[in-house]
Amino acid sequence: MVKTRVCTTFVAVFVVFFVLTIFVYRFLNRVSNKSSDGKFYIPMNPHMYIQQDKSQTDYSKEMDQLNREQVSMDDPRLIQLIRNHWIENPSDAEYNLQFPDLLDPSAGQAPFVDNRMSFKERGFYVECGALDGETRSNTLMLERLRKWNGLLIEADPSNYKNLKEKHRKAFSINACLSIYPFPVIMEFKQRFSQGKLIENERDRGGKKGTIIEVQCFPLYSILLAINVTRIDFFSLDVEGDELKVLQTLPFDQVDIEMMTVEYKHIDLGEDYLKNYVENKGYDSLVKIGHYRQWANDIIFKKRKRNFR
């Protein structure tokens, strides 16, 4: 009886100690990312800047030529133009967030990925569309809490202007992701979080929105421009063109650990998307939803290889 009580007490003490250890670790991890005034900060990584040559002032003519030629995704001329004239380096200014005390503005994607990535520090993300860099962002928590760097892609110039004012610690680009394996100019309907490419008359009609022309680049081209082909987390929400964007991506050249992909507006449907991504070596982990339809995502994780 005494031995049983001793064992029970020991187990209880061990469990309490374990839980307290985890709590203290998470608390200190969070506090360590705050400055003396209580605001979150991120130590900048000097290696996450790229050197740019902006001496070429009339680069638009060359870009028009590359669009007409439908050059390949890895064309050196295209990569150089994106690097020098479209990519913007991470901000080193303090955050300028509308809701600075809201650590996670996502609909659940960020904490799920954080957990499955074992609370990884200093990872790299890509988020498209990034909106204003804060509203329902799937990457802001990872950037602030885990010191991640990344790439923010937003096609709508109005959203992008607001994004730049947030001072995110990430590369950014005001362009759309091409649905073809080459750069192209396309029409785009501006509707804040519902903005999308116009591919047919159905897209042109429907809900009102200002129609503009936008430059679209293959994702692979943008990644080459910032010298990154290893991505820990890719967030893709482009109002129906997610599958087409993924189909341009050479998965044998780009290593992506986890992805969250919106499925709601894809014409071929959720199952087709799942089958496509799973055939590229991923497992479907979970569907993320929201009662206000702010999220209709599937989260994928790269399947581990069994070496024999």
Automatic annotation (TrEMBL):
Q: Which GO terms describe its biological process?
A: endoplasmic reticulum to Golgi vesicle-mediated transport; endosomal transport
Q: Which UniProt keywords apply?
A: Membrane, Transmembrane, Transmembrane helix
**Recorded GO CC terms:** endoplasmic reticulum membrane; Golgi apparatus; late endosome membrane; plasma membrane
Give the transmembrane region(s): 7-28
Annotated ranges, domain Methyltransferase FkbM: 127-270
Q: Could you tell me which InterPro entries the record lists for this protein?
A: EGF_Rcpt_Signaling_Reg (IPR053202), FkbM_mtfrase (IPR006342), SAM-dependent_MTases_sf (IPR029063)
Cite a single Pfam family from the UniProt record. Answer: Methyltransf_21
Recorded hits in PANTHER family, A to Z, give: PROTEIN STAR
Q: What is this protein called?
A: Methyltransferase FkbM domain-containing protein
